Amino acid sequence: MQAALRLAQRGLGKVWPNPAVGCILVRGQEIVGRGVTQPGGRPHAEAEALRAAGSRARGATAYVSLEPCAHFGMTPPCADALIEAGVARAVIAVEDPDPRVSGRGIERLRAGGVPVDTPLLAAEAAALNAGFFLRMRQRRPLFTLKLASSLDGRIATAKGESRWITGADARAIGHRLRASHDAVLVGSGTALADDAELTCRLPGLAHHSPVRIVLDRRLRLSSDCRLATTASHHPVWVFTRPEADAGRRARLTGAGVVVTALAMPADDAAAARIIARHLADLGLTRVLIEGGAVVAAAFLAAELIDEIWLMQAPSLLGGDGIAALAPFGLDELAAAPRFQRIASQPAGADWIAVYRRRT
Question: What DSSP element (H or E) covers 246?
Answer without folding.
Answer: helix 246-254
